[in-house]
Amino acid sequence: MPSILGYVRNPKFTRISAAGISAAGAAALAFTVIPGSADAGDKSQSAAKKVTASQKSSSPDSPRDRAELKAAKQGTLDSDVQRSGDVVAAQKEGVAKQKAVASERAAAVKEQADKKIAAAEKAEKERKAEAKAKASRDAKRAAAKPTYPNNLDGWIREAMAIMKKHNIPGSYEGIKRNIIRESGGNPNAVNNWDINAQNGTPSKGLLQTIKPTFDAYHVEGTSTDMTDPVANIVAACNYAADRYGSMDNVNSAY
């Protein structure tokens, strides 16, 4: 019975073909011996793909991890910003409280200072008002012409008030003592017998002055009548102050 390969005339080709057929048979046998080998390969490939996908998903370079890392960093940053904002807010609140306290203290100090100033101003106004009132009273008293009794005591006191204004020295006792010696207190007394009378200028008045002396030492504001008691005292004391220093220093005819 002729072989199915009998038509291949080339022995070499026949051998190669047989070998190829043998190999093909072996392969077929192998596939036949391992049942479900195709399904196993597919499953292996699927598992490998899953492992690769899992590795990719767990890799820090994966988009998911990068997103999660970014979100975590952003959360940390937001938390830090929040804490920083809280600190700044607390600091601002503390500064605001300090300013409020300082403002209250400044207001209290200003209030006390204003009270002191107001009190000082009030006291100064009262002092000025009192000084003004006193000056007014003094002016009224000065303007009011004092009255003196028409006697020796009154004449001396009125003369001394005028002498004081013109800085003419002389005490009440010194003036009275010389008046009593010279005229006995008579404003109209006249000496008609001494050398002055002999020369035509008799001594007259309380302090017995002569006309030339009275005219030379007359004080403005007083009477020009030499026998006027006040005018006579003032002119005589003015003369005595010029020649003896004061009427108090005169103890005899002068």
Automatic annotation (TrEMBL):
Compositional bias per record (Polar residues), positions renumbered to this chain: 43-61
Compositionally biased intervals (Basic and acidic residues): 62-71, 120-141
Domain of life: Bacteria
Region of interest called Disordered, as start-end residue ranges on this chain: 38-83, 120-145
One Pfam family, short name: SLT
Membrane-spanning residues: none
InterPro entries for the chain: Lysozyme-like_dom_sf (IPR023346), Transglycosylase_SLT_dom_1 (IPR008258)
Protein name (Swiss-Prot/TrEMBL): Transglycosylase SLT domain-containing protein
